[in-house]
Design a protein that fits this description.
With 288 residues, the protein is α/β, with parallel strands linked by helices. It contains ten helices and eleven strands. α7 links the parallel β5 (160-164) and β6. The radius of gyration is 19 Å and the shape is globular. The structure holds nicotinamide-adenine-dinucleotide (NAD).
Length: 288
């Protein structure tokens, strides 16, 4: 079997076009979505992410506000900035780029955000809403993975799914989303025993461990749908996923490539979250 390669780039482009249309519609109603991105320090990877988020916003017609802050900023000053963004009517969404320098506790900094503007979906209020089945802003990467899964598989209900990784950013919210879709969900992590055997049961594999090529082809159940979230830069400078792609290609039913799979979906979902936040803040219903 040769797996279908899931084209995240194309799916993300379609989603961005949809967002741009929605931004234009909202403009007609006098609502202009805006995203404030806060970058603390000068981590090169974070700078790249922040730049691409700004570009994606502008392309979709969303206003973009960048706040670059010195790495030695004190927590109270950073929280002061977040307080101002919380009440700024031009700002529909706030994103604090992670990781933060070690002296800043991400729980405290993210906790200072108005949950209604937390477009990364990391605030405990949004995490709690997801866990309890209420409306909230959903973390972008898992949201993007779910869209890819929904497009690839007719019905998710009842399927055996495994999420490898239990971070607050990817693994846990991904597991919650799959549970919401009535999958039977296993969450694996670094202490899981006999991971290959656990993965072999799954019809859906979401790999988010951050370990290059860790998931081998012979771990994969024939025909499974494999979503590779991992982004690992090799010594040769190339990006690779958590799945041994060439091996998995022979066994899986469908698989996302790295790059060009989940990555583009993350940014598209950030734009969607920003627009969704803007609508909510103006009391507008979601489009049908
Ligand atoms: P993290 O380091 O916070 O979490 C990794 C998780 O993997 C942990 O829960 C850990 O228990 C588990 N793990 C580590 N080694 C393992 C092993 N050998 N077996 C089983 N589980 C293991 O990472 P994260 O922030 O969740 O990100 C995971 C990966 O996804 C990284 O490669 C990251 O770069 C990537 N990522 C991609 C996107 C995207 O847009 N595509 C977004 C966020 C993260």
């Amino acid at each position: 079997m040769t797996a279908t390669i899931i084209d995240g780039k194309a799916r993300a482009a379609a989603l961005k076009a949809q967002v741009a249309e929605e931004v234009a519609r909202l403009g007609g109603l006098g609502v202009e979505p805006g995203l404030a991105v806060v970058l603390v320090g000068d981590d090169p990877a974070s700078q790249v992410y922040v730049r691409s988020k700004g570009t994606a916003c502008r392309t979709a017609g969303i206003q973009s506000f960048e706040h670059r802050i010195s790495a030695d900023v004190e927590a109270r000053d950073l929280i002061g900035l977040i307080d101002r963004l919380n009440v700024d009517p031009a700002v529909s969404g706030i994103l604090v780029q992670l990781p933060l320098p070690p002296h800043l506790d991400p729980h405290v900094i993210l906790g200072a955000m108005d949950p209604a503007k937390d477009v990364d979906g990391f605030h405990v209020v949004n995490a709690g809403a997801l866990a309890t089945g209420r409306w909230g802003l959903v973390p972008c990467t898992p949201r993007g993975c779910l869209l890819l899964l929904q497009e690839t598989l007719d019905d998710l209900a009842g399927r055996e799914a495994i999420v490898i990784g239990r971070s607050n950013v990817v693994g846990k919210p991904m597991a919650q989303l799959l549970l919401r879709e009535s999958c039977t969900v296993t969450v694996a992590h670094s202490r899981t025993r006999d991971l290959p055997e656990v993965v072999r049961r799954a019809e859906i594999v979401v790999a988010a461990a951050g370990r290059t090529g860790m998931i081998r082809g012979d771990w994969i159940r024939p025909g499974a749908t494999v979503i590779d979230v991992g982004i690992n830069r090799g010594d040769d400078g190339k990006l690779r996923g958590d799945v041994a792609f060439d091996e998995a290609l022979d066994v899986a039913g469908a698989i996302t490539p790295v790059p060009g799979g989940v990555g583009p979906m993350t940014i598209a979902c950030l734009l969607e979250n920003t627009v969704e936040a803007a609508r909510r803040q103006h009391g507008l219903p979601d489009p049908a």
